[in-house]
From TrEMBL:
Protein name, per record: 3-phytase
A Pfam family it matches: Phytase
Residue ranges of every copy of the BPP domain listed in the record: 12-336
PROSITE patterns for this protein: BP_PHYTASE
Organism: Epilithonimonas bovis DSM 19482
GO MF: inositol hexakisphosphate 3-phosphatase activity
InterPro entries: 6-blade_b-propeller_TolB-like, B-propeller_Phytase
Amino acid sequence: MKKILLIASVSFLMVQCTSMKVKPVYKTQKVQFDTDDPAFWINPQDASKSLILGTDKETNGGIYVYDLKGKIVNKVLGIQRPNNIDVEYGLEVGGKKMDIAVFTERETNKIRVFSVPDLKPIDNGGISVFEDSDQKSPMGIALYKNPATQQIYAVVGRKTGPSGSYLYQYLLKDDGNGQVIGELVRKFGEYSGKKEIESIAVDDALGVIYYSDEQYGIHKYNADPSASNEQLALFGTNDFKSDIEGISIYPTGEKTGYILVSDQQANTFNVYRREGDTNKNTYQRIAIIPVSTKESDGSDVSNVNFGPDFPKGMFVAMSNGKVFHIYDWRDIEALILAQQNKK
């Protein structure tokens, strides 16, 4: 009986906290159609001059670049339904290392690779994906950089696909002429068949991939294509109102931190320990973060000190209204700790 009462008490405290919405410090300027997914580019010389990249998801949509107060400072238009985007650092192209943004272009069945921060295409018009399948329409993407080999991979999801090979993984490399190509190295990923898989996140340091199987749960796999394709974990199956969306990973140490996952129809984010629970491949929700974003799809988070406004980092989430909301991590963290302290 005591155990049942304790669980009920914890649930009640979580519900109580959902009435305290976290408000953004800034909102980005509006795009033309429909924001979907953000990603950070961290300026190595001055973190306060870092950038937020985001997709405008529609035919003839675009990639927008914002400063840390949400002002549009660059954009590329005429992209055929860009969906998700990610950033990685130090890909060797044309004899020099450069930072890249990679995003899915659904209506051309390609992924696109642009250099950042200048946002110039370096993919010879795009890299075709899912070429051996009738099920294409790429949506989700996340980049993985192997800490040992420094090789960079794109993990790509699509509108639908077979269970066991829903995701394709591509090695990104120079074609010898200063353009980036993708070599298919892996097919993996269980799928419930309930809706679709869009949001994908990679933890480079821990070498794992998470992805949202909407209306079902969050899957965890090894990120290295030479490792086992066996699923490592499935969690969150009873924690969401409906669609499971954006995944963001906030490190607090070498192996510790938080995983935040959008509960889209509830306008909240569920929080799990990055390191897992006692069994490191089990994950129990530790907090619910109510936010001002509406129907949040993609999100990203960083623990970098961006300056006085964001000394412990920043959380960015898509919201209805053609914008992204920019949050001070300290506000998110305060709610996580408050809920933990009340347990």
